Amino acid sequence: MITALITFLAVVVVLFVVLKLLKVSVKIIWKILVNAAVGGLVLFLLNLIPELNLPINWLTAVCTGIFGLPAVVVILIISLI
Q1: pLDDT value at residue 3
Q2: C-alpha closest to that of 30 among 38, 7, 81
Q3: H helices of 1-81, where?
Q4: If you compute the radius of gyration of the chain from its CA atoms, what whole number of angstroms results?
Q5: Measuring CA to CA, how many Å separate 73 from each of 12, 25, 64?
Q6: How far apart are the first and last CA of the chain?
Q7: How many angstroms separate the CA atoms of 13 and 48, rounded?
Q8: Contact between 64 and 71 (Cβ < 8 Å)
Q9: Rounded to whole angstroms, how far apart are CA atoms 48 and 23?
Q10: pLDDT tens sequence for the chain (81 residues)
Q11: 41: nearest Cα among 77, 17, 12
């Protein structure tokens, strides 16, 4: 579980640095960081439910970082299939 958290944080930091290097506005960077934080928190909380096993890896971290809660819903649906 701690490895998943470190992976998620590493992807968010790399995403932040890349966006900063590409001269993306602070408003967009802030929106992506908030989406990442909310999405990561929801993924973590959903993993506390014993029946669910949502992977937290670089792909899910990037998806939740960019798309936020809709990405979490898609990951949840895919994991239930």
Answers
A1: 82
A2: 38
A3: 2-21, 26-47, 58-67, 69-80
A4: 13
A5: 19, 27, 10
A6: 23
A7: 25
A8: yes
A9: 37
A10: 678 778 878 877 887 888 888 888 878 878 877 887 888 888 888 888 888 888 878 788 778 878 888 888 998 899 888
A11: 12
The residues spanned by each domain of the chain are 2-80
How far apart are the C-alpha atoms of 44 and 24, rounded to whole Å?
28
* Tokens standing for residue 5: 């958290």
| Cβ proximity of 8 and 56 under 8 Å | yes
CB atoms near residue 71 (< 10 Å): 21
Supply 31's token pair: 């929106």
**Tokens coding 11:** 């992807």
Q: Which amino acid is at 17?
A: V
